[in-house]
Amino acid sequence: QTRVYGRDRVRFMESLVVGDIAELKPGQGTLTLLTNEKGGITDDLIVTNTLEDHLYVVSNAGCADKDLAIFRGRAQELQATGSDVHLEVSDNALLALQGPSMARVLQAGLSDDLAKLSFMNSINTTVFGVPGCRVTRCGYTGEDGVEISVPAGRAVELAERLLDAPDVWLAGLAARDSLRLEAGLCLYGNDIDETVTPAEAGLMWTLG
């Protein structure tokens, strides 16, 4: 998870990804693709134009190091020409709560009205007494879901609170992978990689 600050943060992001970041409304995010010079897909990212003063970028964990190196290199290039952009790497953990019961389970621990949080939108809030969480209505299961960015030191506590609900279970990546196949969603390292372009992947809809 990376935060991008500065007045040139949108120009920075659009120099790396295929999405139309400038068109994102406050609080809105989009799935987009980080591409290399040949158009191959280096990673798929979710980029959110937060209600605060930054872009919030979520990379795949397995690609985090290479993505960050690319981000830092590009930021330095732009800074050298006078652009105002800087990065902050978050040490937050990320929990995904997915499925038909998600809204009911999560609403019990939120003061915000989840019904007002539409797909691919994001808020900063307190979740089951844990402040400083970012809740984004997205996920990779084909079901209604959220991803919760939570301060790392309280991630286990929040996970346990969620698991107090009788219809919440722990699930690993194998479960996620089977669900994404049913939903027809690409998975980095399986269907898409640096040798595959957005056109070849059937992901032209991601292009701004």
Structure description:
The chain has 208 residues and is of the alpha+beta class. It folds into 2 domains: 2-90 and 187-206, Alpha-Beta Plaits; 93-170, Probable tRNA modification gtpase trme, domain 1 (Gyrase A, domain 2). It has helices at residues 9-14, 64-80, 102-107, 155-163, 173-183; strands spanning 2-5, 29-35, 41-49, 55-58, 86-89, 93-98, 122-127, 130-136, 145-150. A 5-stranded antiparallel β-sheet has the order 2-3-4-1-5. A hairpin with a 2-residue loop joins strand 7 (122-127) and strand 8 (130-136). The relative contact order is 0.18. The mean pLDDT is 96. Its EC number is 2.1.2.10. Belongs to the GcvT family. It comes from Xiphorhynchus elegans (elegant woodcreeper). GO terms for molecular function: aminomethyltransferase activity; transaminase activity.
Summed up, what is this model?
The glycine cleavage system is composed of four proteins: P, T, L and H. Keywords: Aminotransferase, Transferase. By secondary structure, the protein is of the alpha+beta class.
Which features does this protein show?
208 residues; Alpha-Beta Plaits; Gyrase A, domain 2; 2 domains; 5-stranded antiparallel beta sheet; 4-stranded antiparallel beta sheet; 24% helix; Aminomethyltransferase, mitochondrial; transaminase activity
